[in-house]
Specification:
The chain is an alpha/beta fold. Helix content is about 30%, strand content about 25%. The protein has 4 helices and 6 strands, in the order E-E-E-H-E-H-E-H-H-E. It has a 6-stranded mixed sheet with strand order 3-2-1-4-5-6. Helix 1 runs parallel beside helix 2.
Length: about 130
Amino acid sequence: MAIVMGLDQHRAQITADWLNTETGEVSRARVTPAHRDRVRQFVGRFAGQDLEVALEATTGWRFVVEELQAIGADVHLAEPAETSTLRGSKKRAKTDRADARHCASSTPSTPSPRRLRASCVPTGAAASPAAGP
C-alpha cells in the first residue's frame, strides 16, 4: 500500500493520520466542518493513489466511506467497541489524533475477523454496524 490512513470522526470534525509507506512520511490533518463537501475536498488530494483507510463506524460514517470509495480507496470499517478493546487501557487522556493513528496502524496490516468491508455493507443497512441480526 502506498498510503495507509486512519480517521477519527465526530459530528464537528474529522482527524486524519496517514503514512506514506514508500517514503515513511507521516502526516495528519483535521477536516472541519465534517460535511460531505469538505470531506470530498480533503480526499480529492489522494485520488489516483493507492489508498487504504480505516475508520470506526460511528455517526456519519456513510458519506465519508462514499467519498473515499469515489476516489478508489480501499475502506475498512471497525466496530467502535472492538477498536477500544484492541487499543487497550490508556495511560494518557484519549485524543482524536491517537484514535486516528491507532486505526491507521492496526487495520490494514492486521485483519480482524470482525472488521467490516465498507464495500460489503448493503446500501439499506442501518447506520450502526451493531444493528440487525
